[in-house]
Structure formats: structure tokens, C-alpha cells
Amino acid sequence: MNYLKEDTIVALSTAVGKSAIAVIRLSGMNSFKIINKIFRTHSKSQKQVKYGHIVDGTEKKDEVLCTFLRAPHTYTGENLVEISVHGNPIIVNEVITLLHKNGARLAEPGEFTYRAFLNNKMDLTKAEAVCSLIASKTERSAKAALNNLSGEFSLKIKNINTVLTNITLLMETTLEYPEEDIVFLSHDKKVIKLDSCIKNIQNLLDSYKTSKILQHGIKSAIIGRPNVGKSLLLNKILGKNRAIVTNIAGTTSDSIEETINYKGVALTIIDTAGIRTHVRNLIESLGQKKTKETIRKSDVLIWLFDASSELDKDDKKIAKFIGRSDFNRPVIGVLNKSDLFLKLSPNSIAHDFSFSTIISISAKTGIGILTLLDELTKIAGLSDSMGDCLTINFRHFILLKKAQESLLRTKQLVDLEEDNDEIICFEVKRAQMALNEILGIDIKQDILDAIFSTFCIGK
Questions:
Q1: What's the rounded Cα separation, in Å, for the pair 382 and 264?
Q2: Quick one: which H or E segment has residue 133?
Q3: Reported pTM
Q4: What is the pLDDT, as a whole number, of residue 430?
Q5: CA–CA separation, 128 vs 119, rounded Å?
Q6: What letters, b where the CB count within 10 A reaches 16 and e where it falls short, cover 80-112?
Q7: In the prediction, which pLDDT does 9 show?
Q8: Which pLDDT belongs to residue 281?
Q9: Which run of H or E residues covers position 10?
Q10: Which of 7, 247, 436, 443 sits a CA distance of 20 to 30 A from 347?
Q11: Partner residues linked to 62 by β-bridges
Q12: H or E element: which one contains 446?
């Protein structure tokens, strides 16, 4: 990445396309000097927000408002100008081109936030939270990202680090003055402090699954033999006719995917082609192949049965496919057509297969649909009563595991009650290095580049 801190950078910070207003952001030591080359105003110099025109020589390009923000009290920690122009892409491009001609460089992805990180305006967990907040799909995922941006996650890491720092300081003092024969930290206190840190790290690790679901949602495939009501169920969940529904078996020959926001969770529901032993043609064969691929990529399966008819060889074929030892997904058994005369019961379908739960619905009338959606979120580990969540990404998860492993080894060494304080200090410091990397302390440049390259330009 071309991150050069001494440059003045420019980018569009609002969405690309036509809009009432677009905001162009300029940041760097020479921001005020560059904007003043192309901005004409009659506003008083001491005003922070000034009305005027962007000009190219004597030609007016747009009527704008410029907000002047002086370092270090800005998002980036540098002199920063936000130019509110009319949201026509032609005008936006002309203004950015003028700023570029007068000394500003086009910003790299995430470079404004990168500069905020370099200038200690935020630690790395907060910087990552900016990206998560922008990408949030639901209110709950946005709230989790905002909790990180507010510093709740970094505070938990810093609190653990403070305890570990106290442990190493006391133990290093013991090592430095061995002739005094003073024990600065007893065995019991070491264990208590280590147990507390290990428990707090485990709490963060436990929240990773929930955080992952809030960030990426739940992908659930509706499977079953042909004509059990899969497409009708999808339509009922969506509240619109998204999939074609007929009495002809095998109407769906491809996967149809839609996402809804249910109680703050992004639920992606996929209608799949029915699986049966006798395939009529090449199209149906390709459809079943696509169904099996979709099953492998899903987080939860909704296995739909026609409760008004007996089980047949097609149901057994599905059971054989998803009952393999390498297949590890929660499966909800759903007895559809509960509004008709029933020939199947929960015991009937549970005889040859183990389900996470079994419920009855009617895709035609809508009975049981909300119960099904509730079960999806429960299986994923989410509930209405959950407190505020944090955004724990895979990078955080790996580093938390490293820190925990070092502390578990430390505890084993402490329990030996031998003269091994140097090794204990080493292991505690390894844990601290992992926790520091979460915050962005002493982190390698290539890791920073990889993180910020995922940001959008202008943020």
C-alpha cells in the first residue's frame, strides 16, 4: 500500500453516485494550503464552516460549504477539510481532480482511518470497528461494532494486560533481588490473578461465534424431496412470491437465495431443488448437484417433510447424504402441511435421523413460521435476552487463543512451585505480546496493510 504519512490525501467519503450532497475529504499538513488555492469565500477567516465556490482559475465549478478542522482535534489527527459539494459525479470528479492538480494525492483504501491509528486517535480494535460498522447488515451487528468503536473491547484487553504487567513486575523484582529472599507474589495470588485473566479471555473467545453470526449472518438451506413445499415456505418467510410454486414435482431446478433481517440477525434462506432417487433430465441432475453444494456451505439446514404423506425412498436418500460422519451441521426437522390430515409425526422422522429440533408448520397458512425463525437464531446461539455484544473477528480470536495458551502454560509452571520464575515471566510476556497485537502495538506493517486494504476508499 502507498501509505505515506507526509502526503496530503483526498477522496470522496460519501457513496458513489448521484445524491443531494457529496462530501470530499482532504487530510494532511498542507490541506488548508491546497484548498485555499481553489476555494473562494467571503466568510470571515475565523469561521470553521465557510460558504463559497470551488474555482478553476476564473471558472466556477460548484457552490460549496468547506469545514476546516485543525490538528490534532480531527478524525485523522491532521489538518482536515471536508468539502460538501452537490452530489453529481461530474462535479465530484472535477473537484477531486483540481485538488489532485494542486498537490493532494488520491487516498488509498482506509487511509484516513490508518492515519487516525498512526496518530493515536484510536487503537487497532477501534479502527477495525469502523470497517465493521460500515459493513453491518443489521441493527444488532451495528451495535456490536459501535461497542468496539466506543472502546469496550480494547478496555477489556487493556484490563487483562494491566494484571499481567503487575505479575511480571513483581516477579522480576523477586528475580532482581534474590539475596533479599522476599516473595513479592505468593503462589495463591499468582493463581488467582492468572485464573481471572484466563476466564476473561475465555469469555471473549466464547463471544466469537455470536460475533461471527452478527457480522456475517446465518445461511440456511431448505432441503427435502420434490413437492414438499420448499418454494412456498421461502415465499411465506419473505412475504412475497420470490419462487415459482406449482403442483408439478421438480419445479425448482436452481437455488434461490434471499436475506431477511430477523430480530437483528441477517438470515439468508435458500430454496433448493428437491432431491430424489429418480432424476428425469440433465437440468434436474444439475439442480440436485447444486443443492448438495449449497448444503455443504450452509450453517443450518431446514429439512422439510410433507406431513400429509408417508416417508419414502427419497427421504432416505437425503438422510444418507446428510448423515455422513464428515457432515456436521444443525438440522431442523420441519413437518409441513400441518393444516392437512397428518401421516407423519416427530417420532416418525426422528426414527432414522437425529434432529436439533422438530417443529410443525403450514407454509400455506403461515402457522409455525415465526417459531421456525426463532429456532434458527436459537441454534445459532442467539437470543432476545442477550446483552450488548462485541465484534470479535478471526484475527482477534487467534491472538486471544495464543494469549490463553501461554497463560495456561504459566499456570502449570506456577503449580509446580519450583524455581522457574524466569520461564513464568517469559510465558506471561508472550501472552501480553498477543494481546498487544490485538490493539496494534508492535504489529508488523504487512498485517496493517492487509487490515486497512479491506476498507473502502474515503474512510
A1: 10
A2: helix 124-135
A3: 0.82
A4: 95
A5: 15
A6: bbbbbbbbeeebbebbbebbeebebbbbbbbbb
A7: 96
A8: 57
A9: strand 9-12
A10: 247
A11: 54
A12: helix 445-452
Contact in structure between 263 and 247 (CB atoms under 8 Å): no
Q: Nearest-5° angle of CA 251, CA 221, CA 352?
A: 95
pLDDT at 168: 86
Domains, the chain, with CATH or none = 9-123 (3.30.1360.120), 133-213+391-440 (1.20.120.430), 218-298+300-379 (3.40.50.300)
Residue in the structure block whose three cell numbers are 478553476: 56
| Lookup result for grid cell 420441519 | 334
Query: How do residues 3-12 score in pLDDT, each as one tens digit?
Result: 567 799 999 9
pLDDT at 384: 58
Q: Which is it for strands 218-223 and 256-262: parallel, antiparallel or unpaired? A: unpaired
Cα separation, 353 vs 117, in Å, equals: 52
Which segments of the chain have a pLDDT < 70?
1-4, 174-186, 242-254, 276-285, 287-288, 324-327, 380-381, 383-388
Is the Cβ–Cβ distance between 132 and 391 less than 8 Å?
yes
3 state DSSP class of 266: strand
What single string gives the DSSP state of each residue in 349-418? HHSS---SEEEE--TTT-TTHHHHHHHHHHHTT--TT--------HHHHHHHHHHHHHHHHHHHHHHHTS
Residue 274 has a pLDDT of 73
Cell numbers linked to 115: 492515519
